Structure formats: C-alpha cells, structure tokens
Amino acid sequence: MSDYRVLPGPEHFLPPAAASMGIRLPNPGEAHINGVITSEEDAYEEAARQFLMAKVPTIFPGPLVLWAWNEKAAKKATAIRHLFNTLKECVQPGQKPMLIPMPDYRPKYPKINPEVEINPNHPNLTIWHNKIDCCIFIGVHCHQANLSLKIIRGGTSCYTIAMCAQAGHEDAMLSFRDASVEKIMRLADTIKRLKGTVQPRLASANNGVSN
Amino acid sequence: MSKERIQISEALYDIMPSDYQDLVKSATYGKEDRGWKDIGTSKELIEQHSLCAGCPESMAFRYILASLPNPEDTVMVGSTGCTSLVFPMVAVHNIHSLFGNQNAIASGLKRALSVRFPGRVKDVVVLAGDGATVDIGLDMTLQAWFRQEKFTTICFDNELYANTGGQESGLMQKGFVAKMAPVGKLFDKVRLPEIARESGCHYVVNCTVSKPSLVEKVIRNAVHIAREIGPTYLQLYTPCILEIGKNSMEGLQEMRDSEKPTERFAYKEYVSEPAKQLLAELAAKDKERKAAAKQLAAQAQAN
To answer: Which one of A99, A109, A117 makes the best mutation probe of the B interface by having the most chain B beta carbons within 10 Å?
Structure first.
C-alpha cells in the first residue's frame, strides 16, 4: 500500500495525480479518506464532521444535476437542496454554508464571476474569493472533477469531498462512489445527527487561501 | 425541435448564473423564424466575446449563430485561430479540433450523429479561419468535399494569420505586406470557392459579412443543402482590422470596399442543380407556411 496521503494543500503548483502515487479507488460499498480505503459509514461521519468544522462549507453541484436531463437528475437536485438546507440548519453562528454551481466546463473568457460560479479550469479562484475551506463535488463529470480536485489540492488548503456517481475520485481527500439520492440524503442525516457535537474551527481557519 | 429539452433543475434554479436562466427563458432555441433581427431583442447565443473591439469576425459570429436553423441540434467544429477564443462563450454544442483537422472531425461527427440519432436532424457546421481551412487543413477540407460529407464549411477569411501576429496565408492577396510577411505575398490568393465547386460542393458563396440579411440567407441555404444533399462552402471576408492597419470603426467600410463588383469579395454564388431544386421546394413550403400563419392571424382578429 502506498504511503502517500491525499491531504489538504497547497501541495505544490503541479500536484501529482493521486493514482500515480499508488492511491486506488474504493470498491462498491466502500469509500476513501485521504487515500485510505474505508467503510462508507466512516466516510459519512468524517464528511459530516468536516462540514460542521468548516468556516465556509460549500456544495458544488455540476451539470449532471443542474440540468434536468431526466427524472433522476431532478431528484438528485432536490436532494442536494435538502443537503444544503440541512447544513444551514446545523451550522453555528459564524459559519457560512454556500451552494455554488459549476454550470460550464469551458474556460470562461473574458472573465468568470467566482462569487456565483465555479469553473473546473480555475476552481481556485472561487475557493479563494469565497474563502471556502471545505467543499463537496456532486454531479460533475469525472474528468472535470479530477482536474478541479487536483488544482484545488495544488493551490489551496481546502478540504475536498467527492460524491461521485461512478467509481470515486482518488484526488479528493474523501470520496464516495455510486452516488445516489439515498446517499446524498444519508449524508444530510449524518450532518443532522452530529449537529452540536463538532466544534467549528472558526478561529484557526486559514480560509482555503494558500500560504 | 424545442427548448423544452433544455431545462434547469427546479431545485437548483435560483443558484444558476443569470445568463443560463436567460438562455432557457428567452433564447431563440426552437423559434422557427429566428434570424439576425433577434439580435438585441432576444437572448443571443453569444453575448460576450474576447475578440478585439470592432472585429468584423465578432459580427459574423453573431449573424451566423442567429441564423442557424436548428441551434439545439447543431454541433459546430472550430479550429485554432481567433474563432477559438469565442467558442467558449457560444451556447451551441461545439468541438475544438486540432489545427487543420476540423473537416475530418466533422466528417466522423456527422456520421456518428446519424447512427446515434437516426430519427433526428443533426446539423454539423465547421467554422475555421483561412489558415486552418486553406493552408494547414487543406487536405482535410478537400477530402471531406470529395467524400460528399453532409456538413457546411465556413471559412472566416481574414487573409492572414491574425492570431499570431500577421503571417502570410494562402488566402492573402498577392503583393500584400503584413507585419510578419515583409517581402509581400508572391502568388495569387488561392481560389478556394472555385476549388470547392470542382471538388463537389453543392453550394458555394464568396462574400463579406457587411449585410446581415445576406449572411442569414446564405447560412440557412448552406445548412439546409448540406443536410439534404452534400457539402457546402462559405467564404466570408472578416478582415483583421489590426493587421491591415485600420481602426475599430473601419471594419464595416473595409468590407463594403472589398465587395464592390470588381473587388475580390464581390458576391459570388454557385448552386448545383439538385440544390436549386431543394431551395425552390423550401421557398415554396416557407411561402405556404407564412400564408397559413397570416390566415390564422386574420381569423383570430375576426373572432
């Protein structure tokens, strides 16, 4: 097993792909935390803890859920809204949950407004601008999610979580696989259950900003 | 075709940036009579671009996108050049190909779309500069025409490599001196419209983009003919005002000057016999549709 761990950055300008460092993807029913395979149960707890600790916990929904391609996509969108509402209910004063879409994968020229959207080609701008210290990707196509997760790990100290509909993401600090409405709802339930048991790191947060 | 297929998830509607909301609410997707007159009155398929101020290519881009008969089911294939700076802001499916590869990509794409969506009309439109079309990609351009691939090729002809500082291109006029071509062009502008005709294109037009209604007409004709019959080619003069030493406001006049009867961009059109027949049928249908709509409106008023 690899000694490499997928940890919050800033790692360096071009961080290695976690897969190239020996990190493998979880099997069905499993997840990974920092590159170590774990049970899904542990991953829900850890993801919920990270969200409740963060100063600006943020959900990044991607095109697979932003657009109502089919009934399943619309249901996932509803579950994501529920997750966000739960998060808002469970955080303490001073914490600021956000829900920021990734509507487009193409680089946005002449400029992107990092306050209202995130783009996979320069996700660090949104992380820095909104001082995000923990985020979750849901409904982002895998290749774009991998790109974003690497850039975020390379240049920011943001903790990244992936709720992937396929096999998971090695480049996230925590990754679920086979995302479904049920899994999103279960994460929301775990956050609700852990409400008040986790101390937010308000004073020590370095706001996702590198160096 | 309709924009009902493009809907934002209700639960996340409020967080979508307003340009996407506007696109769904008031774009011209699904509108039968869409055209250049929608520009400024309806949500455009391109709103901002990163081209230079006053660039005629940005006008051409707008006219073309406003004129596509079927934007929801159109895929545009671009190539390296100034056009590739605009595609990220275009609300039509598009693929950026390697420099010069655009017609090869479009060939495969068109065939794949016919297999994947047999019951649906899918248009493919190549949009590339003169370097990609005539110099680097000439092989791919011609081979696609020889094979009678059913898509439209549009060449934005600015007569040099504008994006990289003004090198000589095959479509540059003879004797022209550019920043990176100080000796002056030694041979004539390649006569690609004529080559296109001889290579099997069914509709070929050589013109400027000074008249939006004309651009709209030729785009619609080219897409319809490519859809039903075979390859079509449009060569549109979109001068690079920077590289020919003009100011932002002088692009339109430059095009008007270049389309005079004796000039190199005087309007030239070639339509093959099958294409002529198709255009006549389409015109008749259009007339019928308009007459029916008029009758309906009159009836509604009477009631």
So the answer is: A109
Cis peptide before A10 (omega within 30 of 0): yes
Q: What is the pLDDT of residues B101-143, one digit of tens each?
A: 999 999 999 999 999 999 999 999 999 999 999 999 999 999 9
The residues, any chain, with a CB within 8 Å of residue B67's CB and separated by 6 or more, are: B34, B35, B36, B215, B216, B219, B220
- At B157, is the secondary structure helix, strand, or coil? strand
Domain that holds residue A99: 35-194
Domain assignment of residue A56, yes or no: yes
- Bridge-based pairing of strands B93-96 and B152-157 is unpaired
Residue B260 CA, chain-centre distance (Å), reads 22
Classify residue A1: in a domain, yes or no. no
Predicted ipTM beyond 0.90: yes
Chain B residues lying within 8 Å of A66, measured CB to CB: 8-9, 12, 16
Question: Which residue in A67, A108, A117 is closest to B88 by CB distance?
Answer: A108
Which residues, listed in sequence order, are joined to residue A37 by a DSSP beta bridge? A32
Domain count for chain A:
1
The DSSP H or E segment spanning B127 is strand B123-129
Interchain pair B10, A74: CB under 8 A: yes
- Give the whole-angstrom CA distance, residue A55 versus residue A207: 7
How distant, in Å, are the alpha carbons of A56, B134, B141, B200 from that of B196? 59, 11, 9, 6
* Residues in contact with B73: Cβ distance below 8 Å, sequence separation at least 6, in sequence order: B1, B120, B121, B122, B123
Domain range list for chain B: 34-271, 275-303
> Residue B66: CA atoms inside 13 Å, Cβ hemisphere, count?
23
pTM of the model as a whole:
0.83
B34-271: CATH, from 3.40.50.970, 3.40.50.720, 3.60.15.10, 3.30.2310.20: 3.40.50.970
More confident site: B263 or B45? B263
**Contact (CB<8Å) B15/A99:** yes
Query: Domain with A117 in it: what CATH number?
Result: 3.40.50.1220
pLDDT-based confidence at A145, cuts 50/70/90? very high
